[in-house]
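haha ok so turns out i had the wrong file open the whole time. this is the CORRECT one, sorry everyone. sequence first:
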Amino acid sequence: MDFSGLFEMQGMLFTIMILGYIFRKVGMISDSGKALLTDLVLYVTLPASILKSFQIEFSHQILVSCLSVIAVAVGIQIGAWLLGMILYPGFPDERKKVLQYATICSNAGILGNPIAEGIFGSMGLLYASIYTIPQRTFMWSIGMTYFTQAPDAKTLIRKVSTHPCILSVVAGFLIMVLQIPLPGFISLTIKNIAGGNTFLAMALVGTILAEVPLRTLPERDTIYYSFIRLFFIPFLVWLACHFAQVDNLVTGVSVVLSGMPAASVTAVLAAKYGKDEVFATKCVVLSTLLSMITVPVWCMFLA
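then structure:
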């Protein structure tokens, strides 16, 4: 089993993060620059990345072959949402919201696709693309309620439903299901803007990390979260798939992707909406570091 793709992706993410760390330390990115970077990710590159992820071939045959993936993925998101309600009692609200979001939202989009393709082949890549659809829907609907404040439910729903990322999910889903052809220059524009999302998001994580003493990364709460994200959730997924006698390939893709580390957008949202951005960054960095051990272990277990 070849893990070179996994290690290359992890190495790329950390290299970009270190660049952001250096830029912040030497003063190239100021407080206003950090705020601009946050807005660029949330309102420009991330919506484009979401739209791009939905631009896949979608036929009746593909729908039938992927129904089990969709069912498992929806089940995982509902389960993660429920786990978020019960696994973090006694945590301060600013940390609890970060943990709940990071429980339903992993880095399956950036890391999952190349890993699934490298380990499970072309069908693994297709299943991984389908798997991320429910996650993106949850992270930009229920997930946004963890960060968005509003005086009443009606205002909250309006603020969440008009967020650019939510609008991108709706537009992307319609484009995929209806197979709406976009003009060439529009597709190219979306593709090129989306291409900058990983760089900007991880560079932003690096700028936040520059304000964190590195020795404080492995603290009780970040270790606890990493255990939940990297071991407990994929274990529950494997257990459920095993007893439900789900196809081996679907099980493998679902377990590996459910065991991805915290998504960098967790820190981005925490920074934007005034939650504990330092703690969110620690969760992203530590879980990503530890995933370099746990993901290959899960792959070997599933082989």
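The longest helix spans residues 108-139.
again sry for the mixup
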